[in-house]
Amino acid sequence: MPQPALLEKHGDVATIVLNRPEHANAIDPDSTRALIQCIDAVAAEPSARVVVLRATGRMFCAGGSIDFFAKGGADFPAVLDELLGPLHAALHKLATLPVPVISAVNGPVVGGGIGLALCADIALAAESMKLRGGYSAIGLTPDACSSWFLTRRVGPMRAKQIFFTNDSLSAQQCLAMGIVSEVVPDAELAARTTALAEALARGATGALGRIKQLVDGAHERSLEAQLDLEHRLMVESAASAEAREGIAAFLSKRVPRFS
């Protein structure tokens, strides 16, 4: 039986693969445990300079498994309670890694799959990608970071409309709203993802991590606090080997070799 989530490593790029295409990569206990293991392994891997999250099949993720929900019966709330704690902790770990995270959204994404797709720093989408809330249609509420990440991208009013109405949004609509970073033809998604991941892996990883820290928390800080953090991180960056190499490469008119 194939693993519902896989971890692949190619050079400096670690890739987490949702691998239940026959079940639309839906989230259930088995896939959750496999995903958590992959995220824990990535977080413990010091050589990973970029992380990619992608899926096999024609759908990125259908959200929570309705079969799993139905089988829960009277124990469903307790089983879900036990499942969500570790899953949410793992997604927080993935979203806050000090390296760039890219999601390659190859097709429709629903419910909890939204959180998986949008926990990335950069979300690339195939033209066949569609997004649908789905939760309220079965009497449930968002999980897996989906409400947090979607609200940050589109604002409270549009996020509520998406989750209230469960209308499907096309890839181009998602691009216009800022939900995804870029839309490419389906046949080009893998190559575009690889090219971006490899380019970022050649970058100044320490600086990218500090940029991520600045941007991710900017909306929660006052201007004064943001300026203080910019000050501190700029001084830290200036003391790094990356800065010395970057400046030397610029002056020598060569490509920097960050390590």
From TrEMBL:
Kindly name one Pfam family recorded for this protein.
ECH_1
The family database entries (SUPFAM superfamilies) matched by this protein are listed as: ClpP/crotonase
The EC class name is lyase
EC number(s): the record gives 4.2.1.17
What are the UniProt keywords, alphabetically? Lyase, Plasmid
GO MF annotations for this entry?
Answer: enoyl-CoA hydratase activity
Similarity field: Belongs to the enoyl-CoA hydratase/isomerase family.
Q: What is this protein called?
A: Enoyl-CoA hydratase FadB
Q: Which organism is it from?
A: Cupriavidus necator (strain ATCC 43291 / DSM 13513 / CCUG 52238 / LMG 8453 / N-1)
